Amino acid sequence: MIAFIDDHREAYGVEPICKVLPIAPSTYHDHVAKRADPGGRRHAPSGT
């Protein structure tokens, strides 16, 4: 389902797609954020 939204989000937008699919927009956005930062870290380690 995430791949479908990725493929069609430019044409239709995330929210309209999510209205017809059984997924909340926040769930999609959470997945995208985790994919962008799989370690869940917001900042790089300081090294100290």
Summarize the structure in short:
The protein has helices at residues 2-12, 14-20, 25-36.
How are helices and strands ordered from N to C? HHH
What is the overall number of helices?
A: 3
Report Rg: 14 Å
**Structural category:** mainly alpha
Overall form? elongated
How widely separated are the two ends?
41 Å
Number of strands: 0
Low-confidence segments, ≥5 residues, pLDDT <50?
Answer: none
Mean pLDDT value: 87
Total domains: 1
* Largest sheet properties: none
Helix content: 55-70%
What proportion strand? Answer: under 5%
Describe, in plain words, how this protein is organized in 3D.
- With 48 residues, this protein is an all-alpha fold.
- The chain has one domain (2-36).
- The chain is built from three helices and no strands.
- The chain has helices spanning 2-12, 14-20, 25-36.
- α1 (2-12) packs across α2.
- The longest helix has 12 residues, at 25-36.
- The protein is elongated, with a radius of gyration of 14 Å.
